[in-house]
Amino acid sequence: MDKKPWEYGKLHVSENGRYLKCGDRPFFWLADTAWPLFHRLSAEDAALYLKNRSEKGFNVIQAVLAFRADGVDQNVGELSDPDYWAKCDKIIDRAEELGLYVALLPCWGSYIRDGLIDMENALRYVDFLGKRFAGRPNLIWIMGGDVRGSDAPEIFKAMGRRTKELFPDCLIGYHPFGRTSSSLWFAGEDWLDFHMFQSGHRRYDQVKLSAWDDAIKAEVSYGEDNWRYVDHDYEVDTKPTVDGEPSYEQIVQGLHDPTQPLWQAPEVRRYAWWSVLEGAMGHTYGHNSIIQFYETGREYGGYCVKHDWHEAIHHEAGGQMRFLKELMESVDFMDGRPNDSRLVGGQRERHDRISVFEGPGYIICYDYKGLDFALDLADLAGKTVEARWLDPATGIQSYMGDLPTSPSVPFTTPEKHTGGSDWALVLRF
Predict the structure, then answer these.
(1) Which whole number is the average pLDDT over 264-278?
(2) Quick one: which of 319, 247, 239 has its CA closest to 279?
(3) Distance separating alpha carbons of residues 105 and 173, to the nearest angstrom
(4) What is the structure's pLDDT at 215?
(5) In the predicted model, is pLDDT for residue 92 greater than 50?
(6) Could you tell me which residues come within 8 angstroms of residue 341 by beta carbon, excluding any fewer than 6 positions away?
(7) What CATH code would you report for 5-334?
């Protein structure tokens, strides 16, 4: 059995400030979203879920200790119940056995935004967590929880600083409100090790829906272009960044209107490939049923949820994230950079975009719509350039030959009969 990530060394930010490492070993963040894991599931069901995710290549689980959201409110009294915390210990123990980090939110951000947690009891709570979870090797801490940092900046900063004091060997991030990034409020903060953005669940045309999660004037909406958050974060701070909440599989587009379609696997893959090939430190996946651990027949259930979570853990996109992770781990991704200058004719807009990521001895392109494109490979003259198509839906790579090194090398993606139109081109030299 492979070693657990932390057995290679402490999880930390890489020397170039863009990625994570365990000791000297690159760590590609691949998280699943399990917000009410501790609240909704028994220890036995949690063990089932964690093993399923571990076998699919996930290495981080995002979960909340004190959860509060529409339709899934946690009884605050439960937090004083020793049995609840004993269950939390058991679930984190199982994650450790499986080699999984748990990215823990102390509480959902609305507890703080709505004044249920103030500065005094916030720090008391963090001190309690410091005693409860001291010495665990598989923890990452996430402040916030679907709220703007401006809702209570001093409390979030104080919690972050105290958490860093109590867990100096743990990384800390901040999970923000929809279509924002932690870099909007916490760039340069010493306690924050990496940025997290929530690209959200809306289409390009769903800018203003007169809903609770509309953007405010100070925020820039990128629509489905989640890769733009990566660029933004690197412009304002030298910290790794990750899409901590993209459009979830099987969630209604825009969240609010049940007549709208649901996000499907090809679209979920697009968010992952776009952000990673723009330089994100990894990616977080989510499924509408799993983010609320919906069970058929229960009263709660939001955002047009349709599937029992026991079924949803087998859905397509959740099993397809590993193909991106495995590809990135097969190359020196930490020394890679996006390189649109390879594209003959320049970059394209929206879904026509061809992502290009290049590092020592390789070029990776992602073509969501299966469009024709051409690359300038003239500078590779004298090298053997092996080309393969990779199907992001299956992970299958197919050798297509050695390429000429000319100023315009054309590519036509193979025809797909099922599973979307997206392809990845992998060049090695």
Answers:
(1) 98
(2) 239
(3) 9
(4) 87
(5) yes
(6) 376
(7) 3.20.20.80
The residue type of 77 is G
Question: Quick check: 73 pLDDT over 90?
Answer: no
User: Which of 237, 290, 271 has the alpha carbon at shortest distance from 49?
Assistant: 290
Q: In a 10 Å sphere around its CB, with 0-12 CB exposed, 13-18 middle and 19+ buried, how is residue 379 labelled?
A: exposed
Could you read off the pLDDT of 299-347 as tens digits, one per residue?
A: 778 999 999 999 999 999 999 999 999 999 999 999 999 999 999 999 9
Domain residue ranges of the chain, discontinuous segments joined by +: 5-334, 337-428
Distance CA 148, CA 212 (A): 13
State which H helix or E strand residue 104 sits in: strand 101-105
For residue 34 the two structure tokens come to: 């399990």
Residue 134 neighbours by CB distance under 10 Å: 10
Cα→Cα distances 154→53, 103, 144, 175, Å: 35, 22, 12, 16
Same fold? 5-334, 337-428: no
CATH homologous superfamily of 337-428: Golgi alpha-mannosidase II (2.60.40.1180)
CA dist., res. 77 & res. 214, Å (int): 32
Contacts of 346 (CB under 8 A, 6+ apart): 340
Residue 370 CA from chain centroid, whole number: 24
H or E element: which one contains 11?
strand 11-13
- The predicted pLDDT at position 68 comes to 72
3-state DSSP: the chain helix, strand, coil percent, rounded to 5?
A: 30, 20, 50
Rounded Cα–Cα distance for residues 202 and 211 (Å): 12
Least confidently predicted of 35-44, 77-86, 110-119: 77-86
Helices (H), 75-172: 82-97, 110-113, 119-132, 153-166
Torsion of CA 160, 166, 171, 174, to 10 degrees: -20
Q: Are β-strands 139-144 and 241-243 bridged in parallel, bridged antiparallel, or unpaired?
A: unpaired
Residues in Cβ contact with 165 at an 8 Å cutoff, skipping those fewer than 6 apart: none
Q: Would you call 30 helix, strand, or coil by DSSP?
A: strand
